[in-house]
Each structure stands twice: as structure tokens, then as C-alpha cells.
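1st attempt posting a full record on here, be nice pls
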Amino acid sequence: MTRDLRAFSRQTNVRLLVGFIILLFVVGGGLIYAFYGRQSAIMGLVCLGAGVAPLAIIFLVLRGMEWIVKRDRQE
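the predicted structure (as C-alpha cells):
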């Protein structure tokens, strides 16, 4: 049985990224809430979201480029 190692690698990277983002928001937001309160936690989540936004944009651009290349190879 052969596996597509590129697909496995891509899936692993996506899972690691999603896990990191969830961990960042849940643990980071939870610690901010525990130490500083609700309003600070909301502002912390806004700032974390602004920090993660460039990563999300880069990820979407790379996915779009991959989709275009795959589409061109099929034609």
C-alpha cells in the first residue's frame, strides 16, 4: 500500500496550524481573562486576531496559487 506523502504532509501542516491557533486563542484568552478580567480578554482576542490575520492571508494566497497550478496542469 502506497501513501501520498505530499497529501499527508499537507494535512499534517494544516492540523498543526489549526491546533496552534486554537491553543493560542483558548489558552491565551483564558489566561488574559484569569489575570485581567473580561474586558481585557476581549481586547486580547481582538489583538490576537489581528496578529493571526497575516498568517491566514498568506495561507489563503498559497492555497489559491496551489489551486491555480493544479487546474492548469489538468487542462
